[in-house]
Design a protein that fits this description.
- Component of the cytochrome c oxidase (complex IV, CIV), a multisubunit enzyme composed of 14 subunits.
- InterPro entries: Cyt_c_oxidase_su4, Cyt_c_oxidase_su4_fam, Cyt_c_oxidase_su4_sf.
- Its main location: mitochondrion.
- The chain is mainly alpha-helical and about 200 residues long.
- The protein has helices at about 1-20, 25-40, 45-60, 95-105, 110-120, 125-130, 135-160, 170-185.
- The chain has eight helices and no strands.
């Protein structure tokens, strides 16, 4: 037993050394050591377990805890990758409890509506409902087109009212006159446009 106690402290010192914790405060040392010791412990006392049970019972209310849950907490989440939630979807009512007693017998005696009621008491959505398309793409495309139209209107506003007009040298006849002048002066005659008379 003393060897186990010694090895757990060696383990704690090893972790502190690897992670490079430099704690000057005694309170921080105690807090870290307490956390690491509790991580090494494999069992909890009965009082700790009952405290967890009371806390979790308050959270789930009158619903049955049927499994460990996605991350160990008693919560209901519809997920396709983790199809069994920790608690049932609906609270226990007298009708559901009567159906659960009937469920313990032969399932062939249950009607389709009773089977659906049992399923809906345990789960909110079916797999088909979880994987059904949401239609979110319509709003995404609508918002994208709206923002694009705003950008076009902003461009038109800037072109008409913000930017100054282009210089006269950008007119078509001025550009043709400039081309005629380039040809007349034989600019860049070897490879340019003046070489193609």
């Amino acid at each position: 037993m003393q060897y186990h106690f010694y090895s757990s402290f060696m383990y704690i010192d090893l972790i502190r050394g690897i992670l490079g914790y430099k704690m000057n405060n005694l309170m921080n040392n105690r807090a870290v050591l307490t956390c690491l010791r509790q991580g090494i412990k494999l069992t909890r006392s009965h009082s700790e377990l009952s405290a967890y049970a009371v806390r979790d019972r308050i959270v789930v209310g009158n619903r049955d805890v049927v499994g460990p849950g996605y991350n160990g907490t008693p919560s209901y989440i519809d997920r396709t990758d983790f199809p069994m939630p920790a608690i049932r979807f609906r609270a226990n009512t007298p009708d559901v409890l009567a159906l659960r007693e009937k469920e313990k017998g032969d399932w062939k005696k249950l009607s389709i509506d009773e089977k659906k009621a049992l399923y809906r008491a345990s789960f909110c959505l079916t797999f088909a409902e979880m994987e059904a398309p949401t239609g979110e793409w319509k709003s995404i495309i609508g918002i994208s087109l709206f923002l694009s139209s705003l950008a076009v209107w902003y461009y038109m506003f800037c072109k008409l009212y913000v930017y100054p007009p282009l210089p006269v040298s950008f007119d078509e006849e001025r550009r043709l006159a400039q081309l005629d002048r380039i040809l007349a002066l034989e600019m860049n005659p070897i490879t340019g446009i003046s070489s193609k008379k």
